[in-house]
Amino acid sequence: LLINKIRGLPPGPPPLPLMGNMRSFDDPMDHTLLRWSKKYGPVFTVWMPGPTVVIADYQILQDSIVKQGDVFGDKSNPVNQMKMLVEGEYGLVQNANHMWKEQRRFALHSLKEIGFLSTSLQESAKSYAQKIVAEWKKEGAEGKPIDVTQNLMYGVANLIWQLAFGRTLNFGDPMLNEVEGEVYKFFVGMAHPCVLFLDVFPQIEFLDSLFGYPIQNLKTAHTNCMNIMHKELDITAKTLNYDEEPRCYADSFFIEIKRREEKGEDTGNFTRHQLARATLDMWSAGFDTTVTSLKFAIHYLMSYPEAQRKMQKEIDEKIGQRQITMEDQKILPYCMAAIVEVQRTANIAEINFTRLTNQEVVIGGHRIPENTAILPQFPSVHVDPEIFERPDYFCPERHINDAGEFVKDPRITPFSMGKRACLGEGLARMELFIFLTTFVQHCSFSSPTLIPPALKTIRGLTRSPEPYNVKVSARF
Ligand code: HEM
Q1: N or C: the chain end with fewer CB closer than 10 Å?
Q2: Which DSSP state fits 448?
Q3: Mutation probe of ligand 1 site: the residue of 252, 422, 462 with most atoms within 8 A of C-beta
Q4: d(CA 139, CA 143)
């Protein structure tokens, strides 16, 4: 196509003026992008509405995003939009390119120090798993079908709170619902057409009232979220002892600010505002993703009873009724396989975040200019029938070898790859393992109807299952 050729970009579907290819996504985005990759090649250009080079091939992703990681560390952010809606490019997910390295290095170091797998977080995960199971046993007594969402949300929310602020809340603390509500409003608001075009046509802001104030509403939701974060940071700061080990991310950050001040160093990006945004990002990136993955998992358990029985058999034989710990991953290969298969089949991120090249680079034989938006589209690899036979079919056995061992498939990368891969992977893996194994250890999940309901999905911040009910029966 001429326009791509002139820009020195790989071919791709023909874009429309202004809209680019945005109206051409006619099935889930991971599937559309896979279809285009088969037609135009594994490296192709999509206009969304600006040109973006998509990589939808496992090997090329490895050769570029992983092996040449430094070229792909920057994010391609909607700068105008962020300035207007969220006071600029702060936080951990879409931080400004000049600050990501420092902030990411600090976050990685600090999360390691707090210990994603620290006994305290793991102990909390175990006790929340027990608490959730106890709630379900009550709610679902006498075979009453229940919606599992609310209790999953409390468990996941509490763990993020502990990681960010070092505080445990009451299981159903109303503040958790408040944060969830505000963040949800924010993400729903982001899909408003006015907001989508804000980056290209900032003047749209002046027409806000004509469209029912979508921009103002977003700003309010963001301010409300930030106010909650600041209130929590005040509480953390009051009980922080600078001479002790940090209890949480906020502690580490406050300690770093003090260290810089004492040494007379520039505090630079280590500001209270940046900290509040980073804690908000832990929620935005870590809450919905984990809850949604767990909701998919329980839908699969209900729909594939044989897989559920195999998980239970493995747990009954190797663990019995004692509490499951992360150490047990080694002796539960079928459960490990089931969790990987949940993440592959659910594919909650239909489309990944875009990066920005910081120099000219060759990707899959195409010479790509500096400052080009790049989409490391690993989700399309997960649904490629040339790699995974009948990709929509949930089949943990794909990941088990003849000796009954779990075999990790490097082509499954739900936490992405390279320098901007998920920062919360350790916590997320811990939650998925402890929660799911504890759930099937204690309960059996079955369909309220003879034929399990079809898995229909809705698109929000992530792809998630439509609300569904499930029968939960206690195993002991
Ligand atoms: C099952 C759960 C989760 C999944 C599937 C998931 C997946 C992802 C993906 C695909 C990305 C984008 C990577 C890219 O841009 O290429 C990401 C980024 C991120 N995730 Fe997660 N995530 C999960 C849970 C969490 C949790 C629990 C936290 C933290 C508490 C978290 C924090 C982050 C952060 C801060 C980023 C931005 C990293 C950066 O841009 O440098 N995530 N995650």
Answers
A1: C
A2: S
A3: 422
A4: 9
As a whole-number percent, the residues of the chain with pLDDT over 90 amount to 83
Q: Can you tell me the distance from the alpha carbon of 441 to that of 332, in angstroms, rounded to the nearest whole number? A: 12
CB–CB of 316/185 below 8 Å? no
Q: Worst-scoring range by mean pLDDT, 12-26, 107-121, 139-153, 446-460?
A: 107-121
Nearest C-alpha neighbor of 416 from the set 365, 469, 347, 476? 347
Burial of 241 per CB tally in 10 Å (0-12, 13-18, 19+): exposed
Ligand 1 atom at minimum distance from 414 CA = 5
Whether ligand 1 lies within 6 angstroms of the CB of 104 is answered as yes
Give me the pLDDT at residue 1, please.
66
Task: Please tell me the distance between residue 243's alpha carbon and the centre of ligand 1 in angstroms.
Answer: 31
Kindly state if the Cβ of 374 falls inside 6 Å of ligand 1: no
Residue 298: which of 111, 180, 133, 93 has the closest Cα?
Answer: 133
Alpha carbons 250 and 166: distance in angstroms, whole number: 8
- Counting from 1 in the atom list of ligand 1, the atom nearest the Cα of 156 is 27
422 in a labelled binding site: yes
For 340-368, how does the pLDDT look when each residue is reduced to its tens digit (9 = 90+)? 999 999 999 999 999 999 999 999 999 99
Average pLDDT value over all residues in the chain: 94
d(C-alpha 352, C-alpha 343), whole Å? 14
Q: How far is the CA of 349 from the centre of ligand 1 (A)?
A: 10
Task: Assess contact for 374 and 55: CB atoms under 8 A.
Answer: yes
b/e per residue 264-295 (b: at least 16 CB within 10 A): eeeeebbeeebbbbbbbbbbbbbbbbbbbbbb
Going from the C-alpha of 157 to that of each of 148, 167, 282, 370, the distances in angstroms are 15, 11, 10, 39
How far from 268 is each of 83, 256, 273, CA to CA, in Å? 19, 11, 12
- Tell whether ligand 1 has an atom less than 6 A from the beta carbon of residue 199: no
- Taking alpha carbons only, the member of 397, 339, 349, 403 closest to residue 376 is 349
Q: Is 428 in the pocket of ligand 1 (CB under 6 A)?
A: yes
Residue 429, ligand 1, Cβ within 6 A: no
Q: Is the CB of 282 under 6 A from ligand 1?
A: yes
How far away, in angstroms, is 444 Cα from ligand 1 center?
30
Query: 305 C-alpha vs ligand 1 centroid, how far in Å?
Result: 30
Whole-angstrom distance between the N-terminal and C-terminal Cα of the chain? 63
- Ligand 1 atom closest to Cα of residue 418: 16
Per-residue pLDDT of 60-69, as tens digits, reads 999 999 999 9
SS3 content of the chain, % helix, strand, coil (to 5): 55, 10, 35
Share above pLDDT 70 across residues of the chain, in percent, rounded to a whole number: 99
Q: Is the CB of 421 under 6 A from ligand 1?
A: yes
